[in-house]
Automatic annotation (TrEMBL):
SUPFAM superfamilies: GST C-terminal domain-like (SSF47616), Thioredoxin-like (SSF52833). The keyword Transferase applies. Residues 7-77 form the GST N-terminal domain. It comes from Massilia horti. It holds the Pfam family GST_N_4. Keywords: Transferase. One of its GO terms (molecular function) is transferase activity. It comes from the Bacteria. This is Glutathione S-transferase family protein. The keyword Transferase applies.
Amino acid sequence: MITLYTFGPALGLPDFSPFVMKAELLLKMSGLPYQTDTRGFKRAPKGKLPYIDDNGTVVADSTMIRMHLEQRHGVNFNGAYDQRSQAAAWAVEKMLEEHLYFALLHERWIKDENFERGPARFFDFLPAPLRPLVRRMVRGKIRKTLQSQGMGRHSEAEIVAMACRDLDALSALMGEHSCLLGEHPCAADATVLAFVAATLCEQVDTPVRTHAEKLPNLVAYRDRWMAHYYGAGQASTSALAA
């Protein structure tokens, strides 16, 4: 059986990391049996989650996990769509993962009110005297990451404007379809659902979330597919085949 290493449910989401959620959705879509384990971070081969252990074969990074499922298990996530459509889906994935993600990272970790409401709680397992030090250290690393990537060099208003434009583009591309490309999920839907759910997370109060709530097709997409994969109204980790 495949073991997926995760952070675990948080703030009403199956996982606070959209990349972990993406990996789990790929496993759900594949129909392969799997289990989750929240104790693997210290052993993460690339220093981050998610990663999987597939009967002794360890694969890190959500995109590498997808490729592994396709190559080792013959999973065809995109069989319903032609090459041009698949190329467009890949471009959407990268827009979300390499651009919107950093705006969400800023909103969650750098804005004090959201940090205290969410990420700050992740350190509650530490001894009380250590918590402030570790929180400052981790937030400092994230600030450096955002500066290096570039998103952190923008003003709050500029970050919000760019994130909202990503969401508008996604909404326009999806249109009235049930899924990103049409009526059947493709691999990119794992990314799209993870990021739409993360953006609409009610525990994170941002203008980006408010904007997303005004895009009815994205809200309906989140509601429909979260209920399908995780059960109505709850973030379950039971595996449901697509």
